[in-house]
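Lecture notes, unit on protein representations.

Consider one protein chain, 311 amino acids long.
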Amino acid sequence: MKIFVTGGTGVLGQPTIRLLVARGHHVTALARNEPRAHVVANLGATPLIGDLFDANFVKTAVGDADSILHLATAIPKKAAPGGKDWTLNDRIRREGAKHLLDAAKGRKLHSFVAQSITFLYGDTRGEWKREEDPLPRNVPRNSKSAAEMEANALAEYKINNIPVVILRGALFYSPASYSTRAMLDAIRHRRFPILGSGDQYWHWIYVDDMARAVVLAAEHPAPGEIFNVADDWPFHAADGMNYMAAQLNAPAPFKMSILLARILLGGTATFLAQSARYRTDKIKKMLGWSPMYPTYREGLAEIFRTMGKRV
């Protein structure tokens, strides 16, 4: 297939393009500038320099693609990002997605895959969440644009028959992820506290497994469906952090009250303190997906092998 990708140079985009190319697809990926275009070319795809926020360009760029993959994000690289730090990410999800959906209208697409997030479920107090469960009334501020993107995309499926598939990914981790490297570095230097009792559930997804979900959704679309994508082992935050510290030969993490953490870290503390688990039966049954790294420990072993523990 001919596949058009946004976010091709990102943490998720790069392994997705590698896999698509390995499976014989012809990939064109949007690049913001020349250096990013070189990254795309090195992945085996055709780069196209342009602006996701230019509707006319996007319509031309999509061309005769059989599939569109919207994987672009702009996650702030800060320990405690403020509201303004999320502006570009919100715009990508709202305006960028709209331009892609508009470009898809009236065309016979095989699939349109949109990357979303499980964080839409918010703090479930450890309860398992399935795709059909209603989202909370007050979706977290930093996730509202993802909820709007989902709603707009599914509306286009119903009105214009665009074969939209939504993938709600859990927290990504990988050797290339800034947040993963920053977290491991902070744990290594005992700067990453366990919040409260540490019994909140964290549920992750190794980015290569998320890439496999994207490729399967592109190849074997299930129009109008939403899929959770997470590994098989949600874990208690304290257990995970103590395990990571041990693997890094670092001191055990210290504890901090959630109240103090919120004063120091704001919304980041709220995010780290929330507890949620996600069911993935649906994507396993409908798309035949399963994680190559079913637990965070296996994923971390790969990260440490790749990084040589230089974190």
